[in-house]
Amino acid sequence: MIILSIDPGYERVGIAILEKIPRGKETLLYSECFKTSAKLPHPERLFLIGQKVHNIIEEWKPTCLSIEKLFFNTNQKTALAVAEARGVILYEATVADLSIYEYTPLQIKIAVTGYGRSEKKQIALMVPRLIVVDKKISSDDEFDAIAIGLTFFASDFKNRS
Amino acid sequence: MIILSIDPGYERVGIAILEKIPRGKETLLYSECFKTSAKLPHPERLFLIGQKVHNIIEEWKPTCLSIEKLFFNTNQKTALAVAEARGVILYEATVADLSIYEYTPLQIKIAVTGYGRSEKKQIALMVPRLIVVDKKISSDDEFDAIAIGLTFFASDFKNRS
Hints:
- Two copies of one chain form a homodimer.
- The two termini of chain A are about 20 Å apart.
- Chain A has helices spanning about 40-60, 75-95, 105-115, 120-130, 140-155, and strands spanning about 1-5, 10-20, 25-35, 65-70, 100-105.
- The first copy, chain A, has one domain (about 1-155): Ribonuclease H-like superfamily/Ribonuclease H (Nucleotidyltransferase, domain 5, 2-Layer Sandwich), CATH 3.30.420.
- In chain A, helix 1 (about 40-60) packs parallel to helix 2 (about 75-95), helix 3 packs across helix 5 and helix 4 packs across helix 5.
- Chain A contains five helices and five strands; from the N terminus they run βββαβαβααα.
- The first copy, chain A, has a five-stranded mixed sheet, sandwiched between helices.
- By secondary structure, chain A is α/β, with parallel strands linked by helices.
- The longest helix of chain A is centred in the middle third of the chain and has 20 residues, at about 75-95.
- The interface between A and B is medium-sized, with 28 and 28 residues.
């Protein structure tokens, strides 16, 4: 089973492709931190994010999307821009007929570190223990995307939209 | 010149198609309040909104999109859902290569009523005075969509994204 998992963002989108074989360990097939330039017009950045997701789905043919639920943070302007990007990601996933699963930051942290208020550092520490990773991961957004995918595998197909 | 103007929403999307002929008055070619059912899964509603915008663009072939900028209102949860829908609308417009113009509620109210804090009632009163309308408009969302389009025509191609 191949899934796409995404840490939604506007400046940076964490993207991961995870595979799970029955009785086997989860494997990371692909991950990246996709960035859009602040120099581009706002709709152009949404366009690039949508096209990226479209191409990733076309290439890896996942059956599900695991994505983080959005909550309000301190920066409300950022939250709206991230929500717009998240809308585009959900849209491309629905166009491609993926089943969509959404998880709160709390659920993700508990699934990966056992503790709902864990720091980013703990997530980066736990991810390589939970999944076979053959590459160096440097960005928090990639770690988060992988953690969101691991939450899906830990959740027995719960939280379907 | 034919433009698409949209009052972005999640439950209800105000959609209008406006035409302006050089030296002629603006004419409303089409408008509707597109609704999505609360019974549907969240991504499915975004999908329907995107497909609606796609089909409207295909049918009317507008060259521009005029759309309201989003601000935080009292209901933050709604704001995020509306932002997601707005992202999908901007995405479909960019895919179709439309030029995109964004206006604040203040700009829209000033363009249509001359006063930045006007009520919805005033907008409904002024819209038929500013544009040729051959149908009965019943929803605020349609009035708002038309007002957003009129703001574009009043703004001399300013506020391009």
